[in-house]
Amino acid sequence: MMRRYKTIGHLQNRLEELRNEGKRIGFVPTMGALHMGHISLIKNSIETSDITICSIFVNPTQFNVKEDLDKYPRTVEQDAKVLEEAGCDILFLPTIDVIYPPDEDNSYQVDFGDLETVMEGAHRPGHFAGVAQVLKRFLSIIEPDAMYMGQKDYQQFTIVRALLKKLDSKTHLVMGETIREEDGLAMSSRNVRLKPQERSIAPLISKTLFDAKSKVGKKSISEIKKEALEQLDIPEFTIEYFEIADGITLQPISSFEGIETAVACTAVHLGAVRLIDNVVLI
Ligand code: AMP
Q: Ligand 1 mean position to 66 CA, how many Å?
């Protein structure tokens, strides 16, 4: 049986019992409206940790657009069902007051340097500050041995790696591969907000990224980028960015020379929905 907790005290008592039994705790933070991308992280945790805890918390501080927060899908009972079926042990469902008690100062100022001045950081002011704030809080409550996050949010993963370092955290960060629909569209809680016609053209985003990957070694980065921007240039899309970046520093690169790993990342508006995706190129 999966146990549910809404408050910190009861959750921490249970976690202490489990730790005393020598169990390693794996943590999967989410904002709910769960899909197979989230469940694959749960499965990774089940495979490599003893106990899996999933949180569902739609964190207001990481939304830079109020409408996006208001329209964020909320499907907690359905989520609880799929988590239980997947074998999750604990579901943590805190309210806003539990995460940000009104009488406590949970603000957290942290400078991620150039990691946050590009791509998502440049286009969503305050977003990563909110992500860092909420994860710092969750990490202090749960103190997991491992935390599982998706490649789908590549820049977020990189920022969280830097956060764990800054916090001198013992939590091991594990990346889960991006899970896609059959037509290539990266799974996202926001996909349900796409109208049928929008949903049918959305796979052009991942197709463009995979096409870019297929050109590595054959074309220059500027050509690959130019062609990707042309592919995405359809009336339904408003392209926010398409970048080819160093996979570690996240800074744009103009050549693969001396680069250990590189990633193509994009953000596109389609109807009322903002979609992001990325593919590791080398
Ligand atoms: P979210 O609920 O959108 O905050 O996402 C919670 C976690 O699930 C984050 O670590 C995401 O990177 C991860 N995630 C979201 N979509 C996918 C996907 N399609 N494949 C794998 N992981 C994902």
A: 20
pTM for the model stands at 0.98
**Quick check: is 282 in a domain?**
no
Atom of ligand 1 nearest to the CA of 41: 22
Q: Which of 149, 176, 203 represents a domain boundary (last residue)? A: 176
Choose one of 152, 176, 200: the last residue of a domain. 176
Instruction: Confirm or reject: Cβ of 160 under 6 Å from ligand 1.
Output: no
- Per DSSP bridges, beta strands 51-56 and 262-270 are unpaired
**What are the tens digits of pLDDT across the range 3-39?**
999 999 999 999 999 999 999 999 999 999 999 999 9
Tell me the per-residue pLDDT of 218-269, one tens digit each, with 9 for 90 and over. 999 999 999 999 999 999 999 999 999 999 999 999 999 999 999 999 999 9
What CATH number has the domain bearing residue 235? 3.30.1300.10
Backbone angles phi, psi at 128, to 5 degrees: -70, -25
Return the residue whose CA atom lies nearest to atom 6 of ligand 1: 30
Question: Which structural domain, as residue segments, surrounds residue 206?
Answer: 189-275
